[in-house]
Amino acid sequence: MKNVKGKGTQPKQVAKVQTAAADVYSKKSVVDQKKYKTVEVSGQIHSLSRKDEKEYILYIATNASQIEMACRMSEQSKYDSYIYSEGFDFYDTSLDYARASFVSSIKAVAAILKRITKVVTYIGQVNSNVKKEYRSLISAVLKLELPLIELPHGLIQSGYNLDDDSRFIDLSSYYDGIGMSLPSISSMRLTWYGENSVGYPRSNSLNLLRARVVPAYTLVTTNTNWFLYSVEDKRNFFAAVFKYAEQNPTRLFIWSPHPAETNDQTYSSHVVPLRPANVLSYGLAKDIYFDGIEGTNELIAHCSEGISTVSTCLLEYEMFKKNVQIFSTKGVADVLASFASYKSFSSLAELSIKSKPLITGMLEEYSPERFDRFLDWAPKSDPKNSIFMDLV
Amino acid sequence: MQSQKVTGVSAKFGLLEALHKLRPDLNMDTIADLIIDEPSYFRDHKDVHKAGIRAVRHYFQYGEKENRKLTYPRLGFSRLLSPNKVTKGKTVFFTSATDENPSWIYRCLFPFKTEEFQNENLFFSGTNLFSHLLLGFFTARKAVFLRPTYTALTIYLIQLCRRIGVEVQFDYDDLLLPEFARQRGACRSGLRTHREDFSESLKQSSLALHADSFTCSTEAIASELRKTNPNVTVRKNKLPLSMFSSREEIDTRAKSLKIESRKLRILYLSGSNTHKRDFSTVMGPLVKLAQEYSNKFTITFMGSLSDYSSLFRTIGVGSDMRSTVSFDKMLEIIPLHDLVIVPLEYSVFNHCKSNIKYIESASQGVPVIASSVTEFSSAITNGVNGWLCDDEFQWYETLKHIVLNPSEVGACGIRAFEHAKKEHSL
Fold first, then answer.
1. Quick one: A74 and A197 in the same domain?
2. Is residue A215 located within the same domain as residue A348?
3. Which residue in A has a C-alpha nearest to residue B312's C-alpha?
4. How many domains does chain A fold into?
């Protein structure tokens, strides 16, 4: 893993986050479980003349993955933070992370927004697929000229590092592309690797990994909704993987799709009922679930090997040094070519060839100090950018 | 319908007269005011009003059979409105759950529906005619509400008890306080949201304001209830001796087990799907074990848990799914297996749970491996009359040990039987 050099010593917050997160992985005692009671709140009178000149950072997180990144980043930051995600139940999150405050409604955000001095977003482009509450908030942030700092939410995404050759521009389609990478409306754009990098926010997962008792399994991680995979590609992917599973009937394959793949009308959701008996859907309400392993990232940590489409989770395979077979198509050929070392497949025959560890060249260690310095430097937003946001 | 006949009340009397006979200290006009809201009844049934018949006469003679709408009178909760406390009479057990409900069986039927108490107790579960309930409650000295739910009928009956001097007791076999709603099985298993569970239990917990006393199944529940009312008695769940196998049956079974020459038969008695999350605590160890020792054991799932049998069959482990059966049938199925597993999440809610799965299994000479939550830890000595596991590592090691040393199961089952018969029987 590359190091992103940050000046100064490791702040105390880093040790704190590791302790807090490590607690998540240990068996909770009865006393700890008492925390599961309704939060007991105590009040105190503050001075009428109090002046608050502190910096407060608001993280806008539109899904669970972004919430996790925001939690990790805020936990290690020197600043006090709020994390907003509309309608999200933050209770379990609040037990795992000790520092940030949590906001679940735009109404509550409106009440505290005047206090906010900087805003972090994982979607720095105009995207009508994002809920209205987030779009309205970003528009307000732009008009208020608050510094708006953008980080990627995925390893490869339009608006960050991906151009495509589509002449259709449709952000809602699973089939049409977007064309040239979307322009940013933020006032500062940070990255996970390369220029303006703060590193990959989940890069400390290796240190936090807990030992688990799980069976041997091959993990199948997919996001076949992506427009870089044609309908034919989707068919070919599942044909190869399902036949491979049938050829290995004693092996377990655990399938962890991207959440959007479970939407109706997606090819993935249609093939779910057609999967072989040894291809198991992962989740509490599905074929198999290990208590406390909530998502793909931790499944990767414990798998024997992986089969994957091009996805952010490739960084997890790399981080945990897991062999992974990456589905290769014409659409992602250039993307794969940018990786330093990988094993790909486009057919059953190629899938049957032994896989090897992946080196993307994009995995950098997260630096909280560097992120905080970027926050210090972040310029004001351009209020004119709200015009673009208000169009949708 | 589980309504009970109230002895000594002749059918030739009208309900008012019958209730007055049961409680001569209450005159009939008072009783009428206690059992029907006449203005509401007349408003809802103008034909009755027009006919000039008293609401109480009409409803209990005709209206109840015609399924006419009835509004329970609002009686108030003040003890000042009540006569002296009733000191003689029956104990009435009431639940809106069905007669097959395990809580009802363990908390009310097993300990109190016995020959010894046959003239002392009345039992009302599920749906009952209002007139039958009234006859029951008017004979009562004490009313026990099992896991009371916030319904118009329950609220009315509590008010009625307070107005006629009957002691109100609530009985709980789970920690149902709203502050622990997040830990409840339905919420943890994704079947209900926290908001739903919290709102419901918040509402139901408000009823406890008018409980004179509480009984509950574990000390852990008692310690939480005592924070609001000191009058809490622990009454542990126990199984009637008549439901235990005989010692001869246990010995014969142990001799014929011969597990070394066949596969170990594991049983998971899930009960409801609300244990989905609990089961997930042992999913990893079990599937890993299945991969490593597929020819050493079989596993049966019983209840309404999601069907995991196909997963185990895929790995080559014999597995089947059996639907929920009656209590008696369940006791017949248990000894067809060698070992029962009881995985539970490590939470305050589960620490408050009783150990009935241990008792049921032990009653048939079958030992359990259980998560080391309080009540199981208090009953099981690890390796002696069962096994306890703190975490998934211990689950894996314990399962593996038993799968490789199945002969330990027989003696362990006998010791569990002896212990449960001595400590957890009625």
1. yes
2. yes
3. A278
4. 2
For residue A244, being part of any structural domain is answered with: yes
For β-strands A80-84 and B387-389, DSSP reports them as unpaired
- Same-domain status, A179 and A107: yes
Rounded Cα–Cα distance for residues B241 and B65 (Å): 41
Same domain assignment for residues A169 and A275: no
Do the chains contact at A213 and B310, CB–CB below 8 Å? no
Q: CB contact, 8 Å: A389 with chain B?
A: no
* Cα A228-A232-A233 angle, rounded to 5 deg: 45
Question: What is the span of the domain harbouring residue A154?
Answer: 56-116+123-201+366-390
Exposure string of B186-213, with b = 16+ CB inside 10 Å and e = fewer, is bbbbebbebeebbebbeebbebbebbbb
Interface of B with A in 62-91 (CB under 8 A): none
For domain B241-423, the CATH superfamily is: Glycogen Phosphorylase B; (3.40.50.2000)
Same domain, A281 and A370: no
Domain ranges of chain B: 241-423
Q: CB within 8 A of A54, min separation 6: which ones?
A: A80, A117
What is the pTM for the complete model shown?
Answer: 0.89
CB A328 within 8 A of CB A345: yes
B243 touches chain A (CB under 8 A): no
Contact by Cβ (8 Å): B131, B146: no
Asked if B391 and A27 come within 8 Å (Cβ–Cβ), the reply is yes
Per-residue pLDDT of chain A (392 residues; tens, 9 = 90+): 555 444 433 333 333 333 333 333 344 455 555 556 666 789 999 999 998 889 999 999 999 999 999 999 999 999 999 999 999 999 888 888 989 999 999 999 999 999 999 999 999 999 988 999 999 999 999 999 999 999 999 999 998 999 999 999 998 888 889 999 999 999 999 999 999 999 999 998 888 888 999 999 999 999 988 899 999 999 999 999 999 999 999 999 999 999 888 888 889 999 999 999 999 999 999 999 999 898 899 999 999 999 999 999 999 999 999 999 999 999 999 999 999 999 999 999 999 999 888 999 999 999 999 999 999 999 999 999 999 999 98
Nearest to B123 by CA among B96, B160, B159: B96
B217 within 8 A of B354, measured Cβ to Cβ: yes
Mean pLDDT of chain B: 91
Query: Which three-class secondary structure state does DSSP give residue B281?
Result: helix
- Answer yes or no: is A272 within a domain: yes
Question: What is the full DSSP assignment across A71-108?
Answer: HHHHHHSSSEEEEE-TT---HHHHHH--S-EEE--HHH
Nearest Cα of chain B lies from the Cα of A38 at a distance, in angstroms, of 5
Q: Does a structural domain hold residue A20?
A: no
* Residue A22 located in a structural domain: no
Q: CB B291 to CB A216 under 8 A?
A: yes
- Alpha-helical regions (H) of A145-230: 205-208
Phi and psi at residue A327, in whole multiples of 5°?
A: -70, 125
Tell whether A109 and A166 lie within a shared domain.
Answer: yes
**How wide is the angle at C-alpha B255 spanned by C-alphas B252 and B260, nearest 5°?**
145
- Please tell me if residue A380 touches chain B, with a CB cutoff of 8 Å: no
**Interface pTM (ipTM) of the complex?**
0.88
Distance CA B31, CA A333 (A): 86
Q: Does A279 touch chain B (CB under 8 A)?
A: no
Same domain as A210, residue A100? no
- The token duo for A43 is 């009040």
Q: Helices (H), strands (E): how many in chain A?
A: 15, 13
What is the domain-level CATH number for residue A251? 3.40.50
Q: Which of A27, A28, A29, A36 best probes binding to B when mutated, by most B CB atoms within 10 angstroms?
A: A36
Same domain, A220 and A243: yes
Report whether B354 contacts B423 (CB < 8 A): no
CB of A231 within 8 A of CB of A331? Answer: no
